[in-house]
From TrEMBL:
Stretch forming the signal peptide: none
Primary role: Specifically methylates the pseudouridine at position 1915 (m3Psi1915) in 23S rRNA.
Binding-site positions, S-adenosyl-L-methionine: L73, G105, L124, S125, R126, M127, T128, F129
Protein name per the record: Ribosomal RNA large subunit methyltransferase H
Top enzyme category: transferase
Family: Belongs to the RNA methyltransferase RlmH family.
Subunit structure: Homodimer.
Reaction(s) this enzyme catalyzes, per UniProt: pseudouridine(1915) in 23S rRNA + S-adenosyl-L-methionine = N(3)-methylpseudouridine(1915) in 23S rRNA + S-adenosyl-L-homocysteine + H(+)
Organism: Parapedobacter luteus
Enzyme Commission (EC) number: 2.1.1.177
HAMAP family on file: 23SrRNA_methyltr_H
CC annotations in GO: cytoplasm
MF annotations from Gene Ontology: rRNA (pseudouridine-N3-)-methyltransferase activity
Superkingdom, taxonomy of origin: Bacteria
Length: 157
């Protein structure tokens, strides 16, 4: 199985970028992991929220292949404890899903077209975090999940 984290907009903070890279390198011992960053939509000052979300949707939808399992990181998604998230990933592995794409949307969330394409939604918390933080939290939880599945000592419960 391959996992991709698809994001709108780059990570500006060097500290976040370094921490994300640390976990990206750790993940390569478990799985093929890729992070794809789509540039922010340009000239948004004169766009409505719906127009901006529609433009982002067009960029996101181009990234998905027909067989991809698309999971949105969304505040209205299902919340998991770390062990439950590991079980979720294990089920995807067992069912022979070839490619899972986790998606971090733009500042206003996702357009309805992206919700329709998605196979599921996960919430990292009921709180709102910056998109840079979400990326870091997600890659850390992904690493934690695989260490749980391998019975390694990173996670303590």
């Amino acid at each position: 199985m391959r996992i991709t984290l698809l994001c709108i907009g780059k990570t500006d903070d060097a500290h976040f970028a370094a921490a994300i890279e640390k976990f990206r390198l750790r993940l390569k011992h478990y799985i093929t992991f890729n992070m794809v960053v789509i540039p922010d939509v340009k000239h948004t000052k004169h766009l409505s929220v719906d127009e901006q979300k529609a433009r982002e949707a067009a960029l996101l939808l181009k990234q998905f292949a027909p067989g991809d399992q698309v999971v949105l990181l969304d505040e209205r998604g299902k919340e998991y404890r770390s062990v439950e998230f590991a079980d979720y990933l294990n089920k995807l592995l067992i069912t022979s899903v070839q490619h899972v794409v986790f998606v971090v949307g733009g500042p206003y969330g996702f357009d309805d077209a992206v919700y329709r394409r998605a196979n599921g939604r996960i919430s990292l918390s009921r709180m709102t975090f910056s998109h840079q933080m979400v990326r870091l939290f997600f890659v850390e939880q992904l690493y934690r999940a695989f260490s749980i599945l391998r019975g390694e000592p990173y996670h303590h419960e």
